Fold these 3 entries.
Entry 1:
Amino acid sequence: MFRSGFVSIIGRPNVGKSTLMNRFVGEKISIVTPKAQTTRHRIAGILSSESYQIVFIDTPGILDPAYKLQEKMMEAMHKAVQDADVVLYLTDITESPDEVKSRISSLQLQVPCMLAINKIDLLKSAAGEDEERTVESFLQAYQAFPAVVKILPISAQEGWGLDQLLEALIEYLPEGQPYYPTDELTDKPMRFIVAEIIREKIFLLTREEIPYHTAVVIQSYEDKETLTRIRAEIIVSRESQKGIILGEKGRMIREIGRLAREEIEQMIGRKVFLELFVKVRPGWRENDRFLSSFGYTP
Ligand SMILES: Nc1nc2c(ncn2[C@@H]2O[C@H](COP(=O)(O)OP(=O)(O)OP(=O)(O)O)[C@@H](O)[C@H]2O)c(=O)[nH]1
C-alpha cells in the first residue's frame, strides 16, 4: 500500500518549522535565520520513499497581523491548514502549553493534529541529569488534551526524535498515489529559492526593521554556457533603508551578494554571476499591487 499526503507544519514564529522541513527533505528548501518571521510563503518540501510520499508545507509563523504583508502571511498559513491531511503543530520549549492548547483549539482543525515540541536539545543542556523528568513534565502538561493525536519531543537541529515523528506521520497519511515526481524536492522553481537565499542573507546581515521591509524579486535568470546569470532587485520601503542595504561604499550589498552567490553556486553546481539592485517602493507592504507582483499571494 502506498500512502501520500500533505503535512502542514504550523506554529509560532521561530520555533523551527523551516529547520524541521529541511531536515526531513535533506536539502535547504526553506531559509532559516535566528530572527522571527523569516518564512513568508507556503513552501513544499517533498519526501518520497518506496512506500510513501509526504508533502511537507512550511508556513509563516502564526501572529496577529499588523500590516498587509502579514495578513497575506496568515492567509498562506490558513490555506496550508485547509489543504492538509495532517497538521503538524510545532512548538518549542519556551512556549507555554496553555498558549499552545488555546492556539490549536482556535484553529478548529478538521484533520488529525500532531504536536511536536522542538528544541529539546536546549532542555537537555539546561536540565542535565533531570533531562528525562523535564521532558516528561512537558508531556504531562498536554495530558487530557484530545485535540492532538500524538505528542512528540524532538530536536529538529540535532535530528533527535525525528524517526519516531516520521513514523507517526506516515500512520496518519491516507492511501494514495504520489502528488509529485518522486525525485522532486520542492514545488518551488529555482528562481524562487534564489530570491529566498538573498532574502536570508539580508535577514542575517541587517538589523532592526530592515529585514521586515525587504523583498527580493528576480528580474532575470539565464543559464548561459559556462555560468548562470541572475539579476535581482532588493525592494525596500524607504530611501534610508536603501542606504543601509548598500552600506558604506557598497560594502553591505557586496557582502549580501557574495554570501548569496556562494550558496547558490553550491546548490546548482554552476558558476553564478549575481547582480543586485536596490529599489525603493514606499509602502509596498501595504500595497496589494506590489505584494502580488512580489509574489505574495496566498
Ligand atoms: N537549539 C535548537 N535550535 C533550533 C532547533 N530548530 C531550529 N532552531 C533554531 O531556531 C531558529 C528559528 O528556526 P526556523 O526554522 O527559521 O524557525 P521557523 O519556525 O521556520 O521561523 P519563522 O519563519 O519565523 O516562522 C534558527 O536559529 C534555528 O537554527 C532545535 O531543534 N534546537
Entry 2:
Amino acid sequence: MGAVEPQVQAVTRTPLIALLGNPNCGKTALFNRLTGARQKVANYAGVTIERKEGSFTSPMGRAYKVLDLPGAYSLSATTPDEAITRDVVGGLRAGEQAPDAIVCVVNATNLRLNLRLVLEVKRLGLPMVLALNMVDVANKRGIKIDSARLAQELGMPVVETVAVQSGGEVALLKALDLMPDPVRGSGAVKAAPLAAIDAVPVEETQREVRRILDAAVSFANDTGNLSEKIDDVVLHPLAGPVILAALMFLVFQAVFSWAALPMEMISGGVEAIGAWVGGMMGEGVLRSLLVEGILGGVGSVLVFLPQILILFFFILVLEDCGYLPRAAFLLDRIMGGVGLSGRAFIPLLSSFACAIPGVMAARTIQNPRDRLVTIMIAPLMTCSARLPVYALIIAAFIPNRDVADGWINLQGLVLFILYFAGIFSAMAVAWVIKRFMGANSHQPLMLELPSYHWPHLRNLAMGLWERAKIFLVRVGTVILALMVLLWFLSSFPGAPEGATHPPIYYSIAGMLGRALAVVFEPIGFGWQICIALVPGMAAREVAVGALGTVYALSQTGDELATTLAPLISQSWSMPTALSLLAWYVFAPQCIATLSVVRRETGSARYAFIMAGYMFALAYTASFITYRVAIAMGA
Ligand SMILES: Nc1nc2c(ncn2[C@@H]2O[C@H](COP(=O)(O)OP(=O)(O)OP(=O)(O)O)[C@@H](O)[C@H]2O)c(=O)[nH]1
Ligand SMILES: [Mg+2]
C-alpha cells in the first residue's frame, strides 16, 4: 500500500480585500481608482454608508475583489454605518465572504487620529497593507513621514498613495503583488474574533500611537494651515450665518437665471420634433400617442434638466470643498433647539437630491431617537423631483422680472421661499415630535472638520454626469411608461355623441379625476389636476408630464401642444396655483421613499405615520393657502 496522497484542495476563490479606514480619508476615491467605479466621493465624514464591491487585476495579473466600506473611527461601532464596517470585517454578516486581507487607508495629515484604528485592525491578525493616502497634502504641509520606519513599527507594508491623481494607486498595487497570495498557500489566515479588539484599553493604544508618531513622523513646519484661517471667517458667529444664507440665496437665483437659455433650447427642440412628427403623420391614434402622450409628457419633464444640473453643481461644489460640516456646526444651535442633532444636517441636505439617500444617510446618527426624527422629516426637504413642479408653476404664474433694483429675480425669490417653507416645516415637525416624545439632552456636535480644498474637476464632472444619467434614465423609463399609460387612460373610451367637453373628460382618467375632484375641490384642484396627482405618487416629476398630456388632450381646436406654462396659466386661477405649490411642499412622498423608510426603520409603522402626517399637512396647507388667496382677491 502506498502512502496516501495529501488531498490537494484547488482553491479557485478570488481574494477579497477590504478598504478600511477613518471617515473621509479617501477610501472611496482609492476604490474608484482601483476599480474604475464611480462611487460618490466628497469632503466630509460619512459619505459612504453601505458596502460596495468591485474588482481589479494587479500588474502581475492577480485578480482581486475589493470592498469599499463606510468610514469608522473604531471597530467598536457606535453608529449603524460603522456597524456595517465592523460586521463585514469581522465576518459577522451572514452569507457573506469575510475579507482575506485588509488595506488600511489613513489620512497622512492626521495620523494621530488615524493610527488608532490601524492598531485595532491589526489585532484581527489578517494580512494588511497600510496606504498612506493624501501624501500630496502632507508634503505640502511639511509633514515628513518615514514610511520604512513606520512599516517597521507597525509590522506591515506601508505605501504612499494619492487617490485623486492618476497613477496614485501604483505603489499599493505593487505592495499587493509582493504579499503572499491571501487565499492560497501559507497566506490563508482567518480573522481573530472581534472580542480580541475590545480587550485592549484605549489608553494603551493611544500610548502606542504616540510612540510610533515620535519614531516615524516629524511635523517640520506644519504651521497652522489655511483651513483654520478660512474657518475664522466661515465659522464666525455673525459672519458665518450671513455667508450661509447668502450662499443658499445665490443657488436659487442661479437655478432660474442660468437655466433660461438651455431650457429654451430643449423645449424648442422638443417642439420642433413634435411639429415634424405631427406634420408627417395623419390625424390618428398613433399621432396622438407620439405627439401628445410621449413628446408632450416626456418633453415637459426633460426641459428641467438644466435646472436640476445647476442645483447639483452647487451641491457638489459645496460637498467637495469641505464646507458642509461647517454648515452643520453653524446650524447646530438652531437644530438643537427643535430637538435635532447637528448630525442630522448632512442627511437632511442629501434629501434635497432625493429623500432616499437622505433617509439612508441618517445611519451616521448614533442616537436611535435622533435618527428616527431625522428620517421622519427628511421628505419635507425639497427633493429634486419637486423642482420641475415648482419651476413649472412659477414660470406660469410669477412674472419674470427683477426686484430690488435688478438685484433679485422674482422667480428665484419665490423658489427660495418654497425651499425655505420645506425647511421651516421640517423644523416645526421636529419640534412637535420633541414636545410629544420628549428629547434627549442636546449633545454637543462632534464632527471632524476636513481641510478645505478646491473641488476636483473630475469629481464634479462625474457627479453631474451621474445626476444627468439618473434623470435621463428616469425620464426614459418610469416617466415614459407612466406617460404612455396615462395617455391610454386619457384617450379611451372616446367622447360620446354630442359631447360638450373635450374627449379626455369622458375617458377612464377623466372619470377617475372627476371622482378625486370631490375630495380636492375644496383646495382648488379641478379634475385635470387630480389626474396628474395620481402618477405623481410614483415619481413626482410625472405630475408635470401628466399635466402636459392632460392639457394637450384637453385642448380644443387642432392646435398642437405648445409650451405648458402659458397653457396652465390660462386654465388655472392664481389661488389654485398657490394651493398646488403648497401641496407639493408637503405632498405625501413617493412610494419609493416610503418603502425605504420601512426598510431603514425596520417596520411599516413609521412609513404609514409618515404618509399620514404628510397628507394631513399638505391638505391643510393647501386649504389655508387657497382660502386665504381667494379672500385676498388673488
Ligand atoms: N488631495 C487629496 N485629496 C484626496 C485624496 N484622496 C481623497 N481625497 C479627497 O478627500 C475627500 C474624501 O474622499 P472619499 O474618498 O470620499 O473618502 P472616504 O474615506 O470614502 O470617506 P467616507 O466614505 O465618508 O468614509 C474627497 O474630497 C477627495 O477628493 C488624496 O490622496 N489627495
Ligand atoms: Mg467613502
Entry 3:
Amino acid sequence: MKFDRYNSSLLPQNLNPKNPPRPLRGRDQLNLPPSNSKMREEKKQQLKMAEEQMQLLRSKATELLLREEWKDCVHAYSQYISLCQDQISSTDTLLEADQLHKIRKSICLALSNRAEARSRLRDFSKALEDCDQALQIDSNHFKTLFCKGKILLNLNRYSIAMECFRVALLDPQANGSSQSVNGYLEKCKKLDLLSKTGAFDLSDWIVNGFRGKSPELAEYTGAVQIRKSEISGRGLFTTKNMDAGTLVLVTKAIATERSILPGKDLSEDAQLVMWKNFIDKVADLSTKCNKTGNLISKLSTGEDEDGLEVPDICLFRPETEEKSHPVEIEMGKMLAILDVNSLAEDAVSTKVLGKNNDYYGVGLWFLASFINHSCCPNARRLHVGDYLIVHACRDIKAGEEITFAYFDPLSPLDKRKEMSMTWGIQCKCKRCNFEEELWSKKEAREIEIGLERGMDVGGIVYRLEEEMRRWMVRGRERAYLRASFWSAYSEAYRSDRTMKRWGRRIPAMDAVVDSIVDVVGSHERLLKIFTEGMKKNGGLIGMERALKLCRGVYGKIVKKQAMRTLLDFHD
Ligand SMILES: C[S@@+](CC[C@H](N)C(=O)[O-])C[C@H]1O[C@@H](n2cnc3c(N)ncnc32)[C@H](O)[C@@H]1O
C-alpha cells in the first residue's frame, strides 16, 4: 500500500500536526519506553527515599521502645514493618541478595521489638504471633527467642518456654545475657515440676511472717474434672480420694484489680471505680486473646445453668493451644459473667496472709468459677499473689463435688439465707433442708431468738444440746446445728466464768470442733478456739489435731515450723 503521508491517524502521535509536538529529548524522540538503566536509576532513587523514610521510622520506634511508650512503639514498628514489606514486594527484582537479606533482618528485629512492646501491653497473643513471624525469618534469633520464652513463662506454658530459652542459649549473642537466660530456664524448670507435682511449699514465706515477695507458684490441676452438678449447672468433681489439706488446684487470675480503700465514706465509690477498671481489663483481654475470650464465654451468667455445655477441663490448661476464633462477648453478658464468677480477695485467709483490713481485691479465676456453693463445703481458697490455691478442708471421696462456702458457714440458717440472696442463689444443700424442717419446731426458734437477744451463751448451748438429744438429732445433723450456733459455743468456751458455771453440762470443746470439722470442714475460727484451748491446757496436748485442723485451713504447708507460725496467729 502506498504510504499516505497525509493520513494523520497513521502518524506517530507526537508527529501528528493536530497535536503540536512537545520538545523531544533522548529516547523520547523515538517514543520508546524508558531504558532499563533509566528505570533502574528511578527505582534506585525511590529506594533511597524509602530507605531514608525507613531509617527515620526505625529510629523513632527504637526511641519509643527505650522510653517504654509501648502503644506508640507498636504503632511505629507496624508502620516500619509494612514499609519494609512494601519495599521488598515493589523492588523485588532490583534488590541485591545482600540488600534483601538486610531488610529481612530488619523486619525480624522490628517484629521482635514489637513483640516486646505488645507483651508489655499484655497483648500476649499478638506478641506471640510477632515472635513466630520473626522466627520464620531467623529461627535462632536470640532476642525473639528470649522474648517468646518470657511471654510463654508468663502464660505458664513452661515446656515450650524452656525450649525457647534452650535454643536461645545456643546463640553466640547469648553470651552477654546467658546468666539472665539461664535464670529464666531454671525458673521454668522449677515451675514446670511444680505444675506437674503440685509440691508447693509456702513454709519459708510464712515463717518470715509473709514479708517480702510472695512465693512463685505455678498453675496446677489436681485430680478433678468438670461435670454436670446436682447443685446447679456444672461443678468441679474429684476423681480420687483426697484428705484434708490436699491441693485441689492452683490457678492464675485472668485479671485482678486491687486497692487499699480510703476512708469508710469513700469506700463504696472507690469499689465502684475498681469494679469498672476490672470490667475494662477483662473485656480488653477477651478481645486481645481468642482463647481467653472463648473461655470467658463458657462461664455462667447465672441463667439457665442446667442447659450449659460441660467444657473439658483440658481447655483451661495453659499449654492447650488456642485454635479458637474470636468471640465477641456483648457487654450485658460480660457484666453478668463477672457478677457471678468474680471473687473478692477479702477472705479471712487473705487477711491472715499479711494484708491490711482495708485492702480490697477482686479477680477472675477460670477453674474456680466452676465451684458451686455449699453450707457444708469441702474446700477452701487461699490467695497468694495472682494465684488462687484451692485445697480440701476435710476429707473428700472420689466422685464428690468440690464446694466452697460463698459466705460464712458458721452462721445460723436465717443469716445464711440472707447471704445467699445477695449471691442470687437459693441453697438447697442437705444442711439447709434439714434446718429448714427443724425450724418448724418452736424450741428451735426460741433458741435462735435467745441468741439474738444476748442470753447467756452457756444456757443456749446447754439448751440446744438437750433439745438435740430429745429430737434424736445425731451425727452430721448434730454438727450442722453446732455449726449454726458456733458463735454461742465459741463464746462459752472462751469465757472462764461460763465454763465454770456450765462446764460439765456442755460438751467438751474438742469434741464439738471435731464434729463440725467433719461436716463443715476446717475453719480459722475453729482453729482459733482450739489453739486457745491448747494453750490453757498447757501446750502440746492436741498438737497433732491442731496441725490437722491447720492443714484443713491452709493446706499442706510442708514445714512444721510454718504450721506453728500459723497456729500462733490464732492465739
Ligand atoms: C461460680 S458459678 C458456679 C458454677 C456454675 N454452676 C456453672 O455452671 O458455671 C456460681 C453460680 O452457680 C450457681 N450456684 C452455685 N452454688 C449454688 C447453690 N448452692 N445453689 C444454687 N445455685 C448455685 C449460681 O447460679 C451461681 O450464680
